[in-house]
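INFO  loader      accepted 1 record
INFO  loader      residues=328
INFO  predictor   begin
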Amino acid sequence: MKRISETTDIPVGISACVMGEQVRFNGGHSQSKICQVQLAKHFQFEPFCPEVAAGFGIPRPTMRLTGNPDDPDLIFSRPPADGSNEPEADLSKQLMDACQPMLERCQRLDGFILKKDSPSCGMERVKIYQPSGHPHEQRGSGLFARALMQRFPNLPIEEDGRLNDAQLRENFVMRVFAHHNFRTEVTDQPSFHKLLQFHSSYKYLLMAHNQTAYRELGKMLAVAHNEPLDALLKTYHEQFMSAISTPASRGSHCNVMQHIMGYLKQSVDSSARQDILNVFEQYRVGEVNLITPMTLLSHYINQNGSEYIRAQRYLEPYPAHLGLRNQV
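INFO  predictor   done
INFO  writer      dumping tokens
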């Protein structure tokens, strides 16, 4: 198993404007310092702008989605100029044809960061207009974003704006590393044994995010050794990525840390164990962030833990120097 600190250059797609490329409709950009400064240390970003790929030019008139929010066939269009009665031109096919090469490349990506509110890249809350020109109350996804999410439902996807939320950022990065580890450790040279190793290393992280999935995946693998491997890997990956898609609560983290404490019963005296449990409680009630109890617990696990517990990726799901647990 590769140590997490050695994992670099994870391929992640990103809206080109978020990387600072001047490709927005007005010739500007929406550069994210989080992506360029923090995440670029381990992510090899692959920028993409659907609208530029479709040949709409820089700068270009604003684009919008028109139609019924419940209808899958929305129109990607350039609104008529002020005072013009000409109908909106449907540019949906031109846009989606230009997106196909990127969608093919996404098979080897481990995540994607999209530009919020964009009619092509917005993940959610994108305005959809009525033929009258007034927006519907209900909102939706940009055309490229929707195609990406439908084709790769297990791929970690997030919007640039939501990455400003420390909890969502931590969860996204964790999922990207988990997706990368599954792809490189299991699916690249698949075997039932490698799947068991992967599951074993993620047991406590699964428990923190979804106890039901933790139990169900364990039961599934316990009786799956004779199942067709391709189908098993597909089912496991879907359920695993779904299980970790929601950030873990403070209470769930405390529950997992207490379980891990069980491996220290024989090697750490009761007074020290009580001190550790007191720090867990400080975290649970919000007095300290996750890095505080995790640093203390990891210290004792590294000194006294078994090889099995030291291999748990819950202890270091991504490089510690990213500082993500300092803020959650």
